[in-house]
Amino acid sequence: MEKVKEVNHILSVAMEAGKIMLENGAEIYRVEDTMDRIAKHYGSTDHHFFVLTNGIFVSGEDKDGSAFSKLEHIPVHGADLSKVIAINQLSREIAQDKYTLEEAASKIDEIRNIKNKSWLLQVFATALGSGCFAILLDGTMRDGIASFISGIALGFFIYFVFKPYLSKITGNIVGAMIISAICVLFKELGFADSLIPMIGGGVIPLVPGVAFVNGIRDIGDEDYISGAVRLLDAMLVFVCIAVGVATILICYEKIVGGVLL
Amino acid sequence: MSPIVILAAFFGTVAFAILYDIPTRYCFVCGISGMIGWIIYAILLPILGNMPAIFIATIGISLISRFFAVWQKCPEIVFLVSGIFPIVPGAGIYWTAYYLVAGNMSLAADSGSSAFKTCLAMVLGIAIVHELPQKFFSFKRNLK
């Protein structure tokens, strides 16, 4: 009986680590590898992990034949790469025999509760991203500044409305609309020169970089189901952004009669 | 290529590193990988055209990310995700939306498919470097 409990415990700890990695944007291969490393290190010999984009399946068997299995659903979440880095570091330290199983479990709990960067910094980063990418797309300095200001509005929207309340589709369409509307306003008031760099750079913070890159890498690792789901997710967001931009441009052209270039 | 644009590539990448909650000590390195990727792209664009330039720049970013990953002992995804951003086809999204609005479906399909092709070039670049065996990148450890 004692033995069964132990395998239970080992696999639960491994699963907890895998769960944190998966929901914060690690590749499938890395999640499976880390879970396997943790489980092996603490002495589980016969176990199988099956990881998808939004679920982990674990089963294990003890030497006396008693089985253990567990399934956990993992909602698609934001991307908090600091937690992926922390778990990765932890699994290295576990492999170097630094922690007992209980210590490892409490370490994982600590990592779960790492605080995100403050909202002020995130809003500023969104604005900085918008502004810099407007300049990268051949915008003038004035376009960059206008894009920076619309990026501030986008940052507030993402942090206070999109993340807590809205679904992916609505959030991205409305976000792209906010950016486009403010950029069009700047253009009309004469503060900026060209819409292309402003809007093209402004919407970049909405682009799903982690989903896109991970989708490719999952397919490269032959995790076709997860890779396809992630790429579909990324493509959907691209389309939503284009729809949001197009909506505002239609209004601009039809109602105000503005020239789009 | 003015220094302002290069600085913009650097700070833009750092901004995304912050948005993805990458720890502050890695942000500078992330910025470097984005900046180098952009420089490769900007140099090759007039010579080779869009797709090959994106492809080679993506390979460059992926290689740099793997070296940084071994050097800093952290997952390469950290450097890859933020480094790739400067060459994401943001203008392509704008043009597709613009031609849709203007009612010019053939040009909309054109710019949409060219944005899609850019994505494909990035896919190929990332996938190729991803297939290289790990020992190419951990040469330091082999020497010891």
Automatic annotation (TrEMBL), chain A:
Its main location: membrane. The keyword Membrane applies. It is a multi-pass membrane protein. It is found in: Cell membrane. The chain crosses the membrane at residues 119-138, 144-162, 169-189, 195-216, 228-250. Pfam families: ThrE (PF06738). Belongs to the ThrE exporter (TC 2.A.79) family. This is Threonine/serine exporter family protein.
From TrEMBL, chain B:
The chain crosses the membrane at residues 6-22, 27-47, 53-71, 78-102, 114-132. It is found in: Cell membrane. It holds the Pfam family ThrE_2. GO terms for cellular component: plasma membrane. It is a multi-pass membrane protein. Residues 6-130 form the Threonine/Serine exporter ThrE domain. GO terms for biological process: succinate transport. The keyword Membrane applies. It comes from the Bacteria. InterPro entries: ThrE_2, ThrE_Dicarb/AminoAcid_Exp. Keywords: Cell inner membrane, Cell membrane, Membrane, Transmembrane, Transmembrane helix. The keyword Transmembrane applies. Belongs to the ThrE exporter (TC 2.A.79) family. PANTHER family: SUCCINATE TRANSPORTER SUBUNIT YJJB-RELATED (PTHR34390:SF1), UPF0442 PROTEIN YJJB-RELATED (PTHR34390). This is Threonine/serine exporter.
